[in-house]
Write a structure and sequence with these properties.
The protein is mainly α. The chain has a two-stranded antiparallel ribbon with strand order 1-2. It is built from 15 helices and two strands. It has a single domain, classed as ABC transporter involved in vitamin B12 uptake, BtuC, CATH 1.10.3470.
């Protein structure tokens, strides 16, 4: 007689069985894709509504104008994304953009070669960004306070260059083509915006620098204990933000064929709104430039639709603010849903 306990025994699950049990269901996968792609879905829906309400919306000329109008704010927002990913904030981007635009105009007025003038303006943007980032990181002052002071000081610098007057009365034609030219049917500024987004996305995804940015934003102390040069990373993202702001300023001067010290007032708020709407957390460590890119286009589509429908600018401000708040509430709800699905 065999006394071995064979009846009623349960064999432990095999590795394949455990993996199968841990694999998300189709419903969970669908929910996750819906949650991750919610902004893209909203963007497509808004575009469909715009095309229905205005036949001019989907014309090649209008779409090209839409890309051109969103490109400068978009370039600034891409740099802002990296700062916010480290749980920082940069309120001086509008002033840096205006300063760089004035510098390139003044240099070109002085017969400085185009390439050298552009490099100098970009270098000033990077230097200002690095300085603010270094003060925040090493002296441990809140980035909000440092960049708020930078907003005023840098704007004042742009005014002192020409005593508050516009600069660049005779800019070279080759320079003005950068901001006003087209590559096929696409405006060059739009192509540059797309290129900056792609390059920055690749940096975040495939480089150690990108990994460090997410690490610092997720848990600064843990990143420091893991050997991440936290202070250098925080200063570097401000330098990158200064670079993108300077690029936007140069492109605006090229498009307007004149440097304006009053340019980009309020650009920092537009950039922050696009970054947050794009899904990047103000607390750092979560988000990316893909969401920022779509959010910039979404905000431009809304403004473009309002203009096509003849809605006044005051009503546009109210409607855009309401839509932005609703979108942020939707993102918060979807984040909670994502956490629930993940569990």
């Amino acid at each position: 007689m065999n006394d071995s306990p064979t009846t009623g025994t349960v064999e432990p699950p095999t590795l394949s069985t455990q993996a199968l049990a841990a694999r998300p269901t189709w419903r969970q996968r669908g929910s996750m894709w819906l949650i991750k792609g919610n902004l893209l879905i909203v963007f497509v829906v808004i575009c469909a509504i715009a095309a229905f309400l205005s036949p001019e919306f989907l014309t090649t000329r209008n779409l090209a104008n839409l890309l051109q109008q969103s490109s400068l704010t978009g370039i600034i927002a891409i740099g802002m994304t990296l700062v916010i990913l480290t749980s920082g904030i940069d309120l001086a981007v509008g002033s840096v953009a205006a300063l760089s635009g004035m510098i390139v105009a003044v240099l070109l007025d002085g017969s400085v070669p185009i390439a050298l003038a552009i490099i100098a303006a970009l270098a000033v943007g990077v230097a200002v960004g690095l300085l603010m980032g270094a003060v925040s990181a090493w002296i441990r002052l809140p980035a909000f306070i440092v960049t708020l002071a930078g907003l005023t000081a840098v704007r004042g610098w742009s005014y002192t260059l020409t005593d508050g007057r516009p600069a660049g009365s005779n800019l070279p034609e080759a320079f003005t083509l950068i901001g006003g030219g087209y590559l096929g049917i696409l405006p060059l500024t739009g192509v540059i915006f797309i290129a900056v987004t792609i390059i920055t996305g690749l940096i975040l995804r495939y480089t150690t620098f990108g990994e460090y940015i997410y690490a610092v934003g997720s848990n600064e102390e843990a990143a420091r204990l893991s050997g991440v040069p936290v202070k250098w990373i925080k200063a570097s993202v401000f330098g990158f933000s200064g670079l993108t702001a300077a690029l936007a300023g140069i492109l605006l001067t090229s498009r307007l064929t004149i440097g304006q010290p009053t340019a980009f007032q309020g650009a920092e708020l537009d950039a922050i709104a696009a970054v947050v709407l794009g899904g990047t957390s103000l607390f750092g460590g979560r988000g990316g430039v893909g969401g920022t890119f779509i959010a910039v286009l979404l905000l431009s589509v809304l403004k473009n639709l309002f203009n096509l429908l003849g809605i006044g600018s005051f009503v546009q401000m109210i409607a855009t603010g309401v839509i932005l708040v609703l979108a942020l509430i939707l993102n918060r709800f979807l984040d909670s849903r994502a956490a629930a699905v993940a569990r």
